[in-house]
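Data deposition worksheet. Section B asks for the primary sequence of the deposited chain exactly as it was used as input, without tags or linkers unless they were present during the calculation. Section C holds the resulting structure in token form. Section D is free text for depositor observations; keep each observation to a single sentence. Incomplete worksheets are returned to the depositor.
Section A, Depositor: J.P.
Section B:
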Amino acid sequence: MQKKLNKIAKDTNIFLKKFIKKQKKSELIVPMQYGLFSGGKKIRSKILVDVGSIFNLNYRTLLIIGAAVECIHAYSLIHDDLPCMDNDLIRRGKPSTHIKFGESTAVLAGNSLLTMAFEILSHKDLNVNEKTKIRLINNISESSGHLGIAGGQYLDLSYEHKKISEKKIIEMEIKKTGKLFSFCCVAPLILKNKSKKDIQKFENIGADIGLLFQVADDLIDYNGSLSAAGKKTGKDKKKGKATLISLLGDKNTIKYANKLILKINTKLKKYGPKSKNLTETLNYILNRNK
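Section C:
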């Protein structure tokens, strides 16, 4: 599993470095690269490739779409770490982008990575028809803005030190994390021009995978260490974050996560051995320590 993840991470970074190298130089390139090439696991890209393999899609095409996803993910982390958001000083074992380059530069580097994602999806390197490109851009835009990442982060901040229901916590975590995973699950079906029904099914699978990822992240914050996680742990409790752990406790949250995996795997059964890679990735997500 780790070998597969490493290959996708390496191939994604090679594409992104070449893409950036072809662009005109600017003062923001260095902080952009700092946030983008900080050693991320590329789990979102792995999910994209896993779903793509179910439908026998071209690896390079999936890789390019994954590169756009990683730009958006990197932007969201740079902004999440800002003093006005979660105020995190360390990211992946290194100083956060705003600590290294200053707050205003971090904001602009994050903005630039967000817009570069759309540039990648509209570029000639992505060898799909224009209609498909528009559908991909439309879907990833919805996943990233007020209906997705940004909206989820707003709720995350506004729920601090408040008693929030399980339903609202799940809705927040699906927006904050699940929507981008939904895009990763749906993009291959857009490429194959599948029906609305099939797309909705994989959108829901993606939301559940994103929820699983967020639950695992919350468990790392609850039980993990700085050296293993590469970021400060124990923050959620200190900041009064609304998480399933704060509501259900860690043992019940682990049970909830195991039920989620069972639910996802039940939906994937019809694809037989073709969904094996995706099942492996789900187990990795739950059992990771960073």
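Section D:
The chain has a mean pLDDT of 93.
Residues 196-223 form the longest helix (28 residues).
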